[in-house]
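User: Please predict the structure of the protein below. I'd like the answer in structure-token form so I can feed it into my own downstream comparison script.

Assistant: Understood. Taking the following sequence of 189 residues as input:
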Amino acid sequence: MKLACAGYLRGWRVAWWHWQYSNGDISSIDIEDGRDAIVLKYRTRSYGQEWQSVEQRVPIRWTPCRFGGERPWFLCAVHCNGVYCGRRVAKLYGAGQLFACRHCYRLGYAVQRGGPMDKVHQNLARLHRKLGADYDGPDMPAPPKPKWMRWRTYSGIVHQIQVGQARLDAVFIVGAQRLIRLSFRRESG
């Protein structure tokens, strides 16, 4: 949780959090922090609408850690489909007028949005990262063994890469066959 690491949530104070977008625009949020809740103050607007000031109170719950100390959690204080959410989350997302959890905004993970081919590519990229290398495509040979890695571990990862490459070929063939069938139906129909 970035706010806790930055020294917020320790007591009552007023501060602000800012960030910069890739186009150079800078945004900020005023934060009144406290141990049991923070209050976010910011301005927002929808397309073609005027700017509106928003003040949102976000409750915080603390849970004990295994080896001492405490960990803060935000409570999603948004009503979604007429029902209060109340989930304990580490991150809130600003995908609308209020900050809410990913469930309330129905945000998926990148892995969930891709098709079968994307998933195989992501798996191959993950295996290459395990070997300390960049993934440059399925036609590249497996990266060399890192100096610190055992041969048995390296051989297992190389085998997984080979299986992933075969899986990618199979997924590609299925997709190509589907496209050929669709184009044949359009021509004959």
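That's the full token string. The two ends are 57 Å apart (CA to CA).
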